Amino acid sequence: MASSIRPSLSSIKLPSLSSCNPSQKISLFYLGTGVRQFRNFGLIASRFLRRDENCMGVMASGSMSPAATQENVLDWVKHDKRRMLHVVYRVGDLDKTIKFYKECLGMKLLRQRDMQEQRYTNAFLGYGPEDAHFVIELTYNYGIDKYDIGDGFGHFGLAVDDISRIVELVRAKGGKITREPSLVKGGNSIVAFIEDPDGYQFELLERTPSPEPLCKVMLRVGNLDRSIKFYEKAFGMELLRTQDDPESKNTIAILGYGPEEKNAVLELTYNYGVTHYEKGDAYAQIAIGTNDVYKTAEAIKLAGGRVTREPGPAPGVRTKITSCVDPDGWKTVWFYGHFHHFFHYVVH
């Protein structure tokens, strides 16, 4: 291809990826999905064309086929190195909540920062370093002492080795026990439910010492099959198991990036006949790490999700982000960059 050719963007036809080597496939991906950005920045399309006529020829009008784009992006998702980083929600009394989590649930305050100009404070708590564990990010907005949790958010899960001890500790500290320790229906494991000072529910699951004690976030959805397909395609999560309970009239699906005994997972709950939930303003989002926010955003769109922040650098930090909502409106933020900057972009 002669370098003097200056075709219009609409006249570029990209070839089949099967005829290209790996580096050419990457070039094709960005050319095929980034034409709009190239036009906006005034870039000349031919600058990105290789001289290999088999793989980068300019032909008659056309573009990369949607099927080829979808196949390659969604295949990439399956191999991306992803991890659930933290879950974000708002509280009305930060000191009170931190004290409860430390004294009753055994969490550690990992760090805290006060943003006086923006009038909010963030605190990160968990059971180990942020670079290796799923953690909690609490947000306190100055002057706001109460939030609406709504009926869509379900609970968090904690794996503990002695449920009775935790329950009695919560009771002694004035906490609320919403379900006393008891056997899971049809199983031999013990669970209990407690409530924190802001009304968030925690499910305690009795397990041998777990590498990821903060082990679950449960959200309710209106169409379980639709949600499973979305999280498999757009998020690259694996469907670990489903469980139907006709007596309670609900079905749950557990999805994640590894076995639930060793990793934090997402539990989606479908209640028979309920297609919509109120989300309130208390629960915010889950954050997930990815190797490429641009491809992540493209996969989300291809899988039927809505990108709420186009991928790009976060202001003032060495981190790239994108965010989306799933078919039920639950929000997720994706991060790529130097780890210590992941948590400098927050919700308040």
Structure description:
Its EC number is 4.4.1.5. It catalyses: (R)-S-lactoylglutathione = methylglyoxal + glutathione. One of its GO terms (biological process) is methylglyoxal catabolic process to D-lactate via S-lactoyl-glutathione. The chain has 348 residues and is of the alpha+beta class. It folds into two domains: 56 residues, no CATH class; 262 residues, 2,3-Dihydroxybiphenyl 1,2-Dioxygenase, domain 1. The protein contains eight helices and 16 strands. It has an eight-stranded mixed β-sheet. It has an eight-stranded mixed β-sheet with strand order 6-7-8-5-9-12-11-10, with helices on one face. Helix 4 crosses helix 8 and helix 5 runs antiparallel to helix 6. The chain is globular.
